[in-house]
């Protein structure tokens, strides 16, 4: 997967999915509505700075806690296309992969990025920040396959046995 | 070739010759579970996948437990959808008054056996490691794919082996074991790894206490927290297990990422301070914090063991005037057993309230959420900012002894000061 966009830096490590999407709103089903609550317990003002094509630049162990897919669904619903971080929590990482968001761990790229940087993510192993390329560990083959299918929905659809 | 317990389970559920840490493989599920929050989102994704039927209705379990009983019309609609979908698919459905909190319930109902792979639409699916299963939490799109194909993708995790030795002193429980592990490796120290609990101290823990330990493996970032099945598990599963099973353990020469030691005899009751489960100190260090609410329950610590501990402190005493106390037995069966033993009466007599089984306020859903400026002592598993209500509230995670003692004292104290 290859995406291009504008950086928005989210400061801090161990940012959990509860602050990104509080439990009280887990009864919401429409991703557009979910977008209204993104970052509600963390910094709601971040919502005003999201544009179509935002790439979040995040710290270590981003997305810890709950498996709630409402977080990446709300991110997609807000125009976010990808994330570059120092490292990610497992379930959050796989939820992003499954939903077709470009997600890559690359601490050097995080160091180089600031708000408004032009970011290009190629999940096969390159992140560019304002034209400077950084090598990232390539996603494993199956994860690249999922990305090529647009996410797990497309990947599974191709394997569902139809009568 | 030497393998860890987790590798053996995954290898038995994948069409590969061998597994090595880091390999991304497709793993077959023995049981797929979701709830009123993760289920409806998964059903939508499953429709988009073009899958009309689940891969095997006898392996799918749906539990209404999060906004239970419904807190508003939207939550009621989610539960109605969960029930309609379950009936249409012919899968097992545990609804209001028929079940309880998913993880305690699925163990109690015999769905979880050693060596099984369980995919759950809830991060605390790692609880099933207590019975020697590879239970792991997944998001809703993953669950949709599991419902359609009976499998999920998984990077083979490394294993961190935790050796438990020594006999625990008074008021030290399984909760303190996992809080000590979090103190050692913090949140994230277990990422891309399974926590495996072995040694004489592990074998001496009851199944209830193992549930509490395994439950918070995800707080370290781990896939699951696993105990090799032993005689205690065999006894627990008698007349309960829905599938045959065999006990396995890691080969002695298997490769481990890390080894940790926990000496139970040296442990004190521990507390995770706001706002991170890895922010752990002793209850003595944290004593004196005023407490507005005590919450005893959830998928980590809502078992008979926890309720008996709480009752032995609250029985014949009163909840402090400054403090509210809520007791949430994890399942209907536990609720009835606690009633039979007279525990519920003791809680109410002390001035606590006893709730129906629900995830409730643990995730800030309903049933006792916190106001700004309040502190809670809770036997739950997460104390992230805003987790149980207001972002300005503080949550202290602790075992049931400590929680009950805080209810009586109106502040954090060592249980020995109250009991």
Short description:
With 163 residues, chain A is α/β, with parallel strands linked by helices.
Give your account of this protein's structure:
The complex is a heterodimer of chains A (163) and B (419). Chain A has 163 residues and is of the alpha/beta class. Chain A has seven helices and seven strands, in the order βααβαβαβαβββαα. With 419 residues, chain B is of the alpha/beta class. In chain B, the strands form five sheets. A five-stranded parallel sheet of chain B has the order 4-3-2-5-6, covered by helices on one side. In chain B, strands 16-15-14-17-18 form a five-stranded parallel sheet. In chain B, strand 2, helix 2 and strand 3 form a beta-alpha-beta unit. In chain B, helix 6 (174-185) runs parallel beside helix 8 and helix 12 crosses helix 14 (343-350). The radius of gyration of chain B is 20 Å and the shape is globular.
| Uncertain spans of chain A | none
Largest inter-chain interface?
Answer: A-B, 45 and 56 residues
Q: Beta-strand percentage of chain B?
A: 15-25%
> Stretches of chain B where pLDDT falls below 50 for ≥5 residues?
none
Task: Tell me the structural class of chain A.
Answer: alpha/beta
Order of helices and strands of chain A: EHHEHEHEHEEEHH
Strand order in the largest sheet of chain B: 4-3-2-5-6
Please state the average pLDDT score of chain B.
98
Let me know the number of strands of chain A. 7
Intertermini distance of chain B:
52 Å
Termini Cα gap of chain A: 32 Å
Q: Please describe the biggest sheet of chain A, giving its number of strands, its sense, and whether it closes into a barrel.
A: 7 strands, mixed
Write down the oligomeric state: heterodimer
Quickly give the structural class of chain B.
alpha/beta
Overall helicity of chain B? 25-40%
Radius of gyration computed on alpha carbons of chain A = 15 Å
The largest sheet of chain B is: 5 strands, parallel
What proportion of the residues of chain A is helical, as a percent range? 25-40%
Number of helices of chain B: 15
């Amino acid at each position: 997967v290859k995406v291009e966009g504008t950086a928005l830096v989210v400061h801090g490590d161990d940012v959990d999915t509860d602050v990104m999407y509080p439990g009280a709103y887990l009864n919401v089903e429409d991703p557009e509505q979910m977008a209204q609550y993104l970052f509600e317990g963390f910094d709601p003002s971040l919502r005003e700075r999201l544009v179509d094509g935002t790439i979040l630049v995040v710290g270590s162990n981003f997305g810890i806690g709950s498996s709630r897919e409402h977080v990446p669904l709300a991110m997609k619903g807000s125009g976010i296309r990808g994330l570059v971080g120092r490292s990610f929590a497992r379930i959050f990482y796989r939820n992003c992969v499954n939903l077709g968001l470009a997600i890559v761990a690359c601490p050097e790229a995080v160091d180089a990025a600031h708000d408004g940087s032009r970011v290009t993510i190629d999940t096969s192993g390159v992140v560019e920040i304002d034209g400077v390329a950084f090598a990232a560990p390539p996603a494993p083959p199956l994860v690249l396959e999922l990305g090529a299918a647009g996410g797990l929905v497309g990947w599974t659809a191709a394997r569902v046995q139809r009568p | 070739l030497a393998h860890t317990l987790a590798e053996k389970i995954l290898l038995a559920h994948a069409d590969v010759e061998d597994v090595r840490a880091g390999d991304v493989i497709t793993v077959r599920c023995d049981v797929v579970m979701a709830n009123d929050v993760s289920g409806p989102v998964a059903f939508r994704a499953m429709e988009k996948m073009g899958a009309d039927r689940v891969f095997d209705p006898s392996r799918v379990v749906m539990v209404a437990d999060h906004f239970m009983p419904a807190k508003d019309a939207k939550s009621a609609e989610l539960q109605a959808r969960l029930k309609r979908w379950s009936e249409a698919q012919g899968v097992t459905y545990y609804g209001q008054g028929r079940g309880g909190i998913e993880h305690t319930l699925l163990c109690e109902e015999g769905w979880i056996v050693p060596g099984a792979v369980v995919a759950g639409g809830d991060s605390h699916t790692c609880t099933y490691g207590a019975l020697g299963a590879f239970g792991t939490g997944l998001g809703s799109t993953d669950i949709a794919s599991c419902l359609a194909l009976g499998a999920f993708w998984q990077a083979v995790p490394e294993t961190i082996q935790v050796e438990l030795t020594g006999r625990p002193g008074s008021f030290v429980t399984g909760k303190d074991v996992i809080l000590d592990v979090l103190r050692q490796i913090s949140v994230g120290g277990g990422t891309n790894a399974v926590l495996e609990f072995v040694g004489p101290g592990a074998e001496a823990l009851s199944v209830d206490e193992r549930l509490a330990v395994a439950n918070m493996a995800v707080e370290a970032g781990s896939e699951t927290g696993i105990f090799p099945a032993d005689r205690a598990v065999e006894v627990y599963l008698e007349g309960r297990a829905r599938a045959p099973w065999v006990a396995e353990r890691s080969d002695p020469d298997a490769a481990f990422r890390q080894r940790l030691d926990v000496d139970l005899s040296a442990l004190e009751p521990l507390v995770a301070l706001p706002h991170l489960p890895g922010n752990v100190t002793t209850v003595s260090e944290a004593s004196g914090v005023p407490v507005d609410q005590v919450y005893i329950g959830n998928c980590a610590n809502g078992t008979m063991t926890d309720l008996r501990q709480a009752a032995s402190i609250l029985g014949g005493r009163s909840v402090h005037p400054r403090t509210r106390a809520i007791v949430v037995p994890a399942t209907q069966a536990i609720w009835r057993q606690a009633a039979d033993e007279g525990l519920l009466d003791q809680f109410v007599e002390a001035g606590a309230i006893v709730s129906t089984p629900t995830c409730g306020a643990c995730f800030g859903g309903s049933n006792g959420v916190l106001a700004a400026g309040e502190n809670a002592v809770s036997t739950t598993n997460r104390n992230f900012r805003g987790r149980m209500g207001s972002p300005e509230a503080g949550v202290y995670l602790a075992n049931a002894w400590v929680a009950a003692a805080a209810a009586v004292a109106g502040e954090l104290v060592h249980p020995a000061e109250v009991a």
